[in-house]
Amino acid sequence: MQPEPQNPPAGAESRAIAVDATRLISELQTLAGFTSAEPSTAGTAVTRVVFTPDDLRARAWLKRLAEAEGLAIREDAVGNTFFRWVGAESDLPAVATGSHIDAIPHAGMYDGTVGVLGGLEAIRALKRSGLRPRRSIELVLFTSEEPTRFGIGCLGSRLLSGTLDPGKADAFHGAQRGAEDETLAQVRAAAGFAGTLPSVRLPQGHYHAWVELHIEQGPLLEREGLPIGIVTAIAAPASYRFTIEGIGGHAGALLMPDRRDALCAAAELILSIEKHTLATGAVDTVATVGTCDVYPGAVNSVPSRVTLQLDIRDTDPARRERVMQAVRRDVEAIRVRREVRIAESLVNADDPAICSPHIVEVLDEVCRGYGVQPKHMVSRAYHDSLFMARIAPIAMIFIPCRAGVSHRPDEYAAPADIALGTRVLASTLGKLASE
Ligand code: GLV
Ligand code: MN
Ligand code: MN
């Protein structure tokens, strides 16, 4: 299908931006084919854990697409990949966009991928419009936005923005059951990314502006019938690991009064987390225990050790910390009453990010030009943009996703919404690149 010219946004530098929605949707489908997920009747199931063969094949495919557009490609030591359309004044800080293509187990096909392939299509659309950008425009593919493999999200953008100590990161261990012995150093070397991690960091001011396109992963845009959200702040995530150690034994022979069952203690801990999170009464406080590894994991064996991963988020980090303090008081009580050991370790505790009022204004202006009323909103999901905000002015564009569903095979975003989000992204990048 030939791209249809769309109404150009208002403004002196406006020009017709034509997004090829058919190609973009077909590329999203191709990307969804790089997966190790079991097929699902609910939708398109995608599992693409960082540096697995599917991830590496997807990266190679994406590089071929970018090469076909004549973009200059650079990869850093952790696998963050940069696709640059060199501007007329190539020494100026570039304008950048991007997201991730890794997917948690049994996820959908739009999380992250819309920002990467939408970013590529935005660059193509700007090229087709005849724009010669003053600043370079760069598409960034981040490594491991999802915490699946190493237990920490946004690995690539944390290192890039200097938010994570590169001296520690190479020793990160596998977080998936059965892969605890692998380290980031080994895994990235095997994937062909051999440089030193300190070299990943980019300085403050490296980018003039950063804009990420993403599905909302919540229901508000759909409920309000609005096609575009402009993110004004990103909530602050934290994650912790708890290891509970009790005493195992024979499920028939070990008498109930003598038990020090680690899983029963873990169950109390999980319910304590839920109770104190609900007790804040705040819709913005959310906590999830998403993994629970039980050792030795046999139906006829009393659990002797359990490891839990907790994800807790809030727009107010002080309130998030108050929940943790209440949980710690319960942990102490559980430990004494059940005679088990409970160790807590912090994986990350991040601050929220505030988006740039200037980029938000540019986005508002672009939306007005398209006759679109955007919704200003907070992102409760985290994104690489949270860390890009440490080194650059940022904002995000959200598009609706059906029923707010994400991290599931039935995640869905309508082609028209993807196309509009991409068009808004393209116009915004074009305007920012002319500054
Ligand atoms: C990102 O995937 C998140 O968990 O918010
Ligand atoms: Mn995700
Ligand atoms: Mn995402």
Keywords:
four-stranded antiparallel β-sheet, alpha+beta, nine-stranded mixed β-sheet, 17 strands, binds manganese (II) ion, binds glyoxylic acid, 435 residues
Mean pLDDT: 96
List low-pLDDT spans: 4-14
Rg over CA atoms? 23 Å
> Per DSSP, what share of the residues sits in E-state strands of 2 or more residues?
15-25%
Task: Describe the sheet with the most strands.
Answer: 9 strands, mixed
Shape: globular
Structural class: alpha+beta
Small molecules held by this entry:
glyoxylic acid, manganese (II) ion
- N/C terminus separation: 33 Å
Give the number of helices: 12
Which bin fits the share of residues in helices?
25-40%
Number of extended strands? 17
Order of helices and strands: HEHEEEEHEHHHEHEEEHEEEHEEHEHEH
Q: What does this protein look like?
A:
The chain has 435 residues and is α+β, with helices and mostly antiparallel strands. Helix content is 33%, strand content 23%. The chain has 12 helices and 17 strands. The chain has helices spanning 21-32, 53-68, 113-128, 155-160, 166-169, 184-190, 220-224, 262-279, 317-338, 357-369, 384-388, 415-433; strands spanning 46-48, 72-75, 81-85, 94-100, 103-107, 137-142, 207-215, 229-234, 236-245, 249-250, 286-295, 301-302, 305-314, 341-349, 353-354, 375-379, 394-399. The strands form 4 sheets. Strands 2, 3, 4, 6, 7, 8, 15, 16 and 17 form a 9-stranded mixed sheet that branches. A 4-stranded antiparallel sheet has the order 11-13-9-14, covered by helices on one side. Strand 2 (72-75) and strand 3 form a beta hairpin. Helix 1 (21-32) packs across helix 12 (415-433), helix 8 packs antiparallel against helix 9 (317-338) and helix 10 (357-369) packs across helix 12. The model is unreliable at 4-14 (pLDDT under 50). The protein binds glyoxylic acid (GLV) and manganese (II) ion (2 copies). One manganese (II) ion binds at residues 111, 146, 407.
